[in-house]
Amino acid sequence: MVDQQMIWDEDAARSYDSPGEGMFDPAVLGPTVATLAELAAGGRAVEFAIGTGRVAIPLADAGVEVAGIELSHAMLARLREKVGEDRIPVVQGDMTTASAGTGFSLAFLVFNTISNLLTQDEQVECFRNAARHLAPGGRFVIELWVPQLRSLPPGHDATVEVSEPGYLLVDTYDTLRQHVVSHHVRFGADLEDGHEARIGRSPHRYIWPSELDLMARLAGFELESRWADWDRSEFTADSRSHVSVYRLVGPAPR
After folding, report:
1. Pairing mode, strands 90-92 and 66-70
2. What DSSP string describes 93-153?
3. Which intervals hold domain Methyltransferase (predicted)?
4. Is the dihedral of CA 152, 156, 158, 161 positive or negative?
5. d(CA 247, CA 229)
6. Pick from 46, 48, 47, 53: which is nearest to 13 by CA?
């Protein structure tokens, strides 16, 4: 069993935030927050795997009442350096079972984080837990990448996803179990510890969009919308990711 506390440790929490760049770029974060605020429709929102508050804090600044669930001690400690419990209450625990309350209008899980759950059963339980948090008609929003198996060379099980100065991302696939390990290689003079290179690894279980929709149905949801990105561009066969919006139409599982 993978110890997520060891993956999302103090080093990960310390290096997670990149203000103004990457997933913190206003061009990325702005549409994310604007769309979630609209989908909350004036109600309360709960973020599963709230992390350091990348989305939750600006969403709260936009006037949405936000709560969260977070497993990692280190990520939660980093969040608490930015905002107090009175502003964004967070329950520490597993997003498949932990409860931050009920009656929310919106639950959301962004930036591929559902793939941190490494079995199909855990991923289904995440949907069921989201349903338990929501009021009737509430929405569950998931942002997730599309597996790029078509880019695997014949006879190989790895792809280079990012290659840029100082950083290399290589994904290795186990197609039998739908597992991916992302290898993050950082190198160059900017490393603070004096090493020539550092490598970090994170395991994932990838999910096809159709499989995700079936998980939703098992928990009482139906697909309301699917976009290629937060700008609501059309999702196509060539899309590298998707934002899927599910609405709770059946009774929440107990």
Report:
1. parallel
2. S-TTT----S-EEEEEE-TTGGGGS-SHHHHHHHHHHHHHHEEEEEEEEEEEEPP-GGGSP
3. 46-138
4. negative
5. 18
6. 53
Listed residue (206, 238, 209) closest to 223, CA to CA: 209
Residue type for position 151: S
Spatial separation of the C-alpha atoms in residues 99 and 89, rounded to whole Å? 12
Q: pLDDT band at 9, cuts 50/70/90?
A: low
Burial 208-228 (b: 16+ CB within 10 A, else e): eeeebbebbeebbbeeeebbb
Contact 60, 88 (CB under 8 A): yes
Token pair of 53, please? 């508050």
The string of pLDDT tens digits covering residues 182-191 is 998 888 766 6
Q: List pLDDT tens digits, range 80-111.
A: 999 999 999 999 999 999 999 999 999 999 99
3-state DSSP of 22-73: HHHCHHHHHHHHHHHHHHHCCCCEEEECCCCCCCHHHHHHCCCCEEEEECCH
Structure letter (DSSP) for residue 80: H
